[in-house]
Design a protein that fits this description.
The protein is mainly β and about 375 residues long. It is about 5% helix and about 40% strand. The protein has two helices and 24 strands. The strands form three sheets. The protein has a 16-stranded mixed β-sheet that branches. A six-stranded mixed β-sheet has the order 9-8-7-6-5-10. The protein has a two-stranded antiparallel sheet with strand order 17-18. The mean pLDDT is about 95.
């Protein structure tokens, strides 16, 4: 499987694509001890990107596994990560295949084990496809390690600016050519009928167009619409911080129902890229509360809220979260629907990290609302 590597250079450059089978042949420099001079020779790593999951750590290792690659990264610098703060991530990335949970949509398969000491673990939430173990259980690789190196804040920022975006749909190993679009990327799945059937008849698609919402103060207050978009939105969050990042709200008079039908409300996220220490969703993370919500028509007050039943999202690809069967309070027909996304950066170092959501047919929300009631047509016969 391909891996994108960004080398730490005096003059930052974009990602370099390699095959995981060639990891052992990459150039390496000695583990830093302090006072290193940054030049333009390869050997220290500033980041990895696999299926849109972006890592930045003290140490990096990758190895081919059946149908994919295993990435191991860990932080143990005695100054930046003293005892109590050390942690490692071991993430398996498998080739994209049809996902039975999504009615056959081609999707990522990522599973993660986090080994963390108490200080680091306390900042992390329960996450989808993630197992947490003690740092004492972590056995680091003994060879083929590529180290990171400390750089100035400005040089770190310059490295991030040099990166071009590469999302999960570019990882096409093992995917049939007929499943790829004209750019050689995995096609959007919902237009192919690959999505879990809805319980109602109303679907709202994520848009990047602004829609101000006076109930909350989110960084990106954007729209839900009844037609799909073709764009993306990115939000960054500083170290050890959480925020209300994305707020999607339906148009005026949508869903146009007084008492909302009891049932399951869902939101499908198409996460193009997610930095490795980020987590997000429609739930509480840190001091920020995300949710599915019912708000009044003027977008000035909350009527009722529910949270997702699933754990936090840390992976890229298509992830559907839901409320379980719930009943929203309220009975005013003009009330609107919202999804308020919270995201958290669990790292203490490295500055802001990002989440990028693709606003397309695979990014949507739905619920058990019935079809709109259309007034009968009056026919006058003369």
């Amino acid at each position: 499987m391909k891996i994108l590597v960004q080398w730490t250079n005096r003059t930052p450059a974009d990602w370099e694509e390699i095959d995981s089978s060639n990891w052992a042949t990459l150039p390496r420099k000695k583990e830093p001890t302090g006072g290193e001079v940054i030049d333009d020779l390869k050997g220290w790593c500033h980041g990895l990107n696999v299926q849109g999951r972006v890592f930045q750590s003290d140490h990096y290792h990758a190895e081919p596994i059946t149908d994919g690659v295993r990435v191991t990264v860990w932080n143990d610098d005695p100054i930046d990560y003293p005892p109590g703060e050390r942690y490692a991530r071991v993430v398996d990335f498998l080739i994209c295949i049809p996902d039975s949970r999504l009615n056959g949509a081609i999707n990522t398969r990522q599973r993660q084990v986090v080994f963390a000491e108490s200080g680091a673990r306390d900042r992390m939430s329960r996450a989808i496809n993630t197992t947490f173990l003690s740092w004492a259980d972590f056995i680091p690789p003994t060879s083929d390690i590529i180290h990171g190196v400390m750089v100035s804040d400005q040089l770190h920022l310059d490295h991030r600016k040099a990166r071009s975006p590469h999302g999960w749909i570019e990882w096409t190993e093992g995917v049939d050519a007929g499943e790829l679009d004209e750019r050689g990327e995995i096609k959007k799945q919902r237009p192919l009928g690959r999505f879990p059937p809805a319980s109602g008849t109303r679907t709202y698609f994520m848009q990047s167009a602004a829609r101000a919402n006076g109930v909350h103060i989110a960084t990106d207050e954007v729209a839900f619409e009844t037609t799909a978009d073709s764009s993306s939105i990115t939000e960054k969050t500083g170290s050890s911080s959480d925020e209300l990042s994305f707020l999607f709200t339906t148009p005026t008079n949508e869903p146009d129902q007084g008492t909302w039908t009891t049932g399951v409300f869902r939101c499908s996220f198409d996460a193009a890229t997610v930095d490795a220490d980020m987590e997000f969703g429609l739930l509480t993370l840190g001091g920020s509360d995300g949710h599915f919500g019912r708000v009044n028509a003027a977008l000035s007050s909350e009527v009722d809220t529910k949270i997702q039943t699933q754990a936090a999202i840390t992976n890229t690809g298509i992830t559907v979260v839901d409320t379980g069967s719930v009943t929203f309070g309220g009975a005013t027909q003009s009330d609107r629907f919202e999804c308020l996304v919270v995201q958290r950066n669990t790292a203490t170092m490295g500055g802001p990290q990002t989440v990028t959501l693709t606003c397309d047919a695979d990014g949507f929300a739905d619920g058990p609302w019935p079809a709109p009631v259309t007034a009968p047509r009056r026919v006058i016969i003369i």
